[in-house]
Design goal:
This protein is of the alpha+beta class. It contains 7 helices and 8 strands. It has an 8-stranded mixed β-sheet with strand order 1-4-3-2-5-8-7-6, with helices on both faces. α1 packs across α7 and α2 crosses α4. The radius of gyration is 17 Å and the shape is globular.
């Protein structure tokens, strides 16, 4: 096993460990990780920082793990395969959010109807193999389905979001769940009017720019602090 505990791994900072744990806590606080979840981020030297199989409330800075991406010997093989296929990905979040899971069972093309759905315009694949990703071959099929998308649905299972870093992967996770929730409400009221590709591209640049991401991250951190 090419797995190390954080006590022996010297390839990441205390700040990164703190951000990792905050990410897990925000996922819990926002109600998207009740059934199951896993988080990781890319490290230098072909490694990834990840977590044991546990509740998001139990992830600790001194309990994080370092896995070799090419080894596929940790519990989150889909993460290995995505990092292997996508050099641009710096972090991955997998959760089972209620509205996103429900939308994934419809097998419909995703059409954004408000700002937070814009980053997924025309590119939200749906992986049609329910169940866990238990081996390297299945993990690579999943990564191939993801392609160059920011997120993917897993039919009857959950979703995966990828980003340049933990903050972006977290925000894309929360944005997709909100987009699916608003879509569900709008469909009960009538026929939603989707955004155009041009509108979506403009909005995506706005909400994913560093300043906007920083403001959103601070918002969710403050919500967490107030609840605590």
């Amino acid at each position: 096993m090419n797995v190390q505990t954080s006590e022996s791994a010297l390839s990441y900072s205390a700040d990164l460990a703190k951000t990792f744990v905050l990410t897990c806590q925000i996922l819990l606080n926002e109600g998207v990780s009740e059934a199951a979840f896993n988080v990781s981020c890319r490290l230098a030297g072909g490694n990834m920082l990840t977590m044991p199989v546990t509740s998001p409330s139990l992830v600790r800075e001194d309990g994080l793990l370092v896995n070799e991406i090419s080894a596929f010997d940790g519990p989150w093989k889909a993460h290995n395969a995505i990092y292997e296929a996508r050099p641009d990905v710096g972090a991955i979040v997998h959760v089972h959010p209620t509205y996103t899971v429900a939308f994934g069972t419809l097998l419909q093309e995703f059409q954004p109807i408000h700002h937070y759905g814009a980053p997924f315009f025309g590119n939200l694949p749906n992986y049609d193999r329910p169940g866990q990703t238990g081996n390297k071959e299945e993990a690579r099929r999943l990564a191939q389905c993801l392609g160059d998308a920011r997120a993917m649905l897993q039919q009857g299972h959950g979703m995966i979001a990828v980003g340049q870093d933990l903050r972006e992967a977290l925000l894309l996770t929360l944005y997709l769940e909100e987009a699916c929730r608003i879509y569900s409400i709008a469909c009960q009221m009538g026929k939603p009017h989707p955004l155009t590709q041009e509108q979506s591209e403009t909005i995506t640049r706005q909400i994913l720019k560093p300043r906007s991401q920083g403001k959103a991250w601070d918002h969710y951190c403050d919500k967490l602090r107030r609840r605590a």
